[in-house]
Amino acid sequence: MKKEMSFLLVLIMIFIFSSSLTAAEKVTKEDNFYESDFFVGFAELFFGENNLTGNIELIEDSDTFEENVDMGRVNFYLRGKIKGKYLITAWLDTEEESLDEIFKNLDERKQNTPFEKIDAEKYYPVYGDDSQVVSETNTAGKLYLKLESEELNAIWGNYKLNYDNNKLINLRKNIYGANIDYDNGFDFNTFWYQPFSTQTRDELELTGGILYYLRQDDLIAGSEDIKLELRDSSTDRVLESRNLVAGEDYEINYLQGRITLKSKLNLFDDQSLIDDQDGSDKYYMVVDYQYDYLSSDIDQNNYGLQTKYDLTDQLYLGANYIEESREDSDKYKIYGLNLVYQNPESTEFRIDYAESENITAEKYFSDDGGITYRKINLNNDDQAQAWNFEYSKVLTAAENLEFNTFYSNKEAGFNSGSQYLEKDKENYGLALIQEKERKENEFSYEKDISGENETDIYNLRFWRKQTEQRSYELELENKVKKEADKEDEKTLNAALGFDHQFDSGNKIYGSQQFTLDKSEEAERNNITTLGGEIKREKWRYSAEASAGDQENILLGAGYMLNPDSEIYTNYEREFGDDFSTETTFGANTAVSDKTTITAEHRIVDDEDENKQSNVIGLDYLASNNLTLSFDYTRSDVEKADSEDFKRDIVGGALTYTENNFRSSNRIEYRVDDKSEKFEQLVLKSNSRWKYNEEFNYLSEIEYSKEKEDGEDRFFEGTIGMAYRPINNTKLNYLFKYTYLDQKNYLNLDTGRELGDYAAEKSQILALDLIYDLNKKWQLTEKIAYKNSEVKLNSINDSWARSETYLWANKIDYALREDLNLFAEYRILENKLAADRRDGFLLGAYKGFNNNTKVGIGYNFTDFNDDLTNLSYEAKGWFINLIKAW
Questions:
Q1: What letter does residue 799 receive in the DSSP assignment?
Q2: Tens digits of per-residue pLDDT, 407-436?
């Protein structure tokens, strides 16, 4: 009864939707309610009933032989305007499901196969004709819906969430789900989604190289959010940050979890002339991403809200609430309020408050480019508060004197999209900045309290531009560090620097730093630095040397092949007890209009570690038809306190296009050489050839192999051909051959024991022939053969060989233009079990004026099993509804 109701419910929905569109078109003519730009749709419903008799134990788990059978699929795309104001775009493809499941799991994000992750240019072959798939909807699931106007933007699909009104929350994610954004005085943005994956964060200190590895591999494609941060070396406060853009700033390999930065990535200027025992300010790459696709059976509702109410033109009040669920932990919650006043000409003021409960994602830190990670331990049951206060005021009418102050207080355990805290942290400070045409003066004070440690920093800075080429800078810094069970460390440092730019583009700079006063526990930092850059036509040279309490040397050279291409090398050596040497050779160059090379070899050697990394990338346009690419990365790390590590990844791609032929291919091979060696090979290939107007050919190959404790292997190759003679329009041929070899498919649930997967090796051939006998009669023949070997456990069980044959014969008769009768006889035989099934199917289809077709019929089936001497008969009727728009 439930299935009958499901069938009727879906049937009613289809007709209501069809009627609504028809009515909308009528209303359009009257009051311009809905104006359709484009609409196409298709729906098919099947309902049948089997009368089963005899012993049916062998088929009781089969959907095909249930007493009631109902299946369906709905697919449509539309684009239009409502009342001339709202632009609506919608797309739905339920795929074929039973009727009680057809509209379920519309919120589920589809899983990316490993082959999609190495194929950035997804190519979708369509069997047997010249069709191409072009998607104008951005969705990772079965549904896409977008409603737009000047004030409203509502979407179900893929979107980038950016909650940045409150600086303490600052949530950025790539999400598949629902999002509504309304902007009209009272603004709000709300979202809902189910994760189907695990969120995590990796923080990597920039090493100076371009190659970085994330902690996880096999990422959810498109889920990453990457930003670059410059942090104060003493207080860890973020001084500058910006979001990186895929393709412009970096390239990512989702399968390997590998990030390659562009060699000309623009960094922020270091804001301090003084270099003390805390070192220079440091750069970090913060990567939020998702991995580990989870089952949709897990009911995890993640939702949030951001609001903004304009009290005046310059003052607004904001609020946030976010709640997220994870399978292995309690719910994460964060909510907050903020008040912001903005007068760009004179004053900016803000107060942010937030409170978090539990953790939103695990956090890991790496200082060696992602070779090793350290987990940041956060308590999962903490409820913590945070405050942030910022005030900026232009003090003079000439707008050359500005006062800034800030205060923040965050409890241990507070975590959000922008920060995770292991200790209580309080940070406040002020700055007075004067900027004139040829001079800058700045005084600042900052205090940082982290747990039981305190740091006070007083800074005074003067900058003068003496001429158009020459400038001077003077900086004075007093720092006091207090740590538990230690004597206070006090230092008073001063530094004088200069920078001279020559007309030729050459530059010389230098600085002298003195420790004017210090406590006994503090380190002295008397440092003399001198450096310069020389440019000679296409060559550039750079050198820098420091002597005193910190001694190092930095040498660099580069050659510009063209304005966008450079070959470069750098050498850096730090002397002293903790010596280190870093050598880099690299190139980022368009050698010609056909060849682009990216390469870098980096060697780091210090007292405890020796590390080498290599990156090579080559894109070569061999001809107007052929593009070749090659990439290779290698990391080799030797550490005194842990096991050595080596990783090699080599990949290549080939794309060839000529006239009506296109072939796209990509291969990757990876080896991790450590205590347990890991190997992986992945290949994807697509080809399509339109020989002429009559003949089409396509092929697809997907291959993967992983080897560690055991071996995972997957291979599927398909060849398809279609022949439609121009001179004989009555005849059509379709042929398809598939070879499958599957053993522990690499993308299955890793929680299962090795060998628990079924293994299969099979070959499948299918031939379809369609022939129009005359205007009323059509004959269809289908012959298929499958030769397979299967076993339930890929390690322990032995192979069982099976052969299956299918022969289907169908004849159609057009009784009249809108009424077709058909009869079909099918034979299915399995040699292993000596099973044979054959039967007739009779039916008719009636067409209607509104692109609707209804079919009704009856099937007769007989099945004999000679081995078990069991038999049954299944007889039943069916209804098939097809609707197109």
A1: P
A2: 999 988 888 877 777 788 999 999 999 998
